[in-house]
Specification:
single chain; transmembrane; rod-shaped; transmembrane helix; three-stranded antiparallel sheet; 3 helices; alpha+beta; binds zinc ion
Length: 132
């Protein structure tokens, strides 16, 4: 694959294990200094109190500030769009749930459009008995 060949061109030896002897895991940096830059690290990297500080970048540094800033800015915009989509999804799911409850209630209590028909039939009955 092209990504692995470019990686192997940049670094000759790709480590397979971290300082504590565990198989390394691949992560992607999202920091302003290293946006979208893949690296290998200890599987316990994000755990609090982890003593292993092993990490090894797989991708070269983005040298030009403009592209680095642009890459980070795009990531920030993407995250914001994802959050907005989650809010919209939550809003729509809530509305769907409300409509389902309303529909269920109407099904249980009887459809409201049938009530005028029932009233009309009762009026006809009453008028029938009054005219007898
Ligand atoms: Zn480790």
């Amino acid at each position: 694959m092209s990504s692995s060949s470019s990686t192997s061109n940049w670094i000759r030896h790709i480590p397979t294990h971290c300082f504590c002897g565990l198989p390394v895991v691949e992560r992607t940096s999202r920091t302003p200094a290293n946006p979208a830059r893949r690296f290998l690290c200890c599987p316990k990297h994000s755990e609090s109190g982890s003593q292993c500080r092993f990490y090894n970048f797989l991708d070269p540094e983005i040298r030009y500030g403009y592209y680095r800033n642009e890459m980070h800015s795009l990531y920030v915009q993407l995250q914001q769009a994802r959050r907005e989509m989650q809010v919209q999804e939550y809003t729509y799911r809530s509305r769907i749930h409300e409509l389902e409850l309303e529909l269920n209630e109407r099904t249980v209590t009887g459809d409201c459009y049938k009530k005028p028909v029932v009233v009309f039939i009762m009026v006809v009955f009453v008028m029938y008995f009054l005219t007898q």
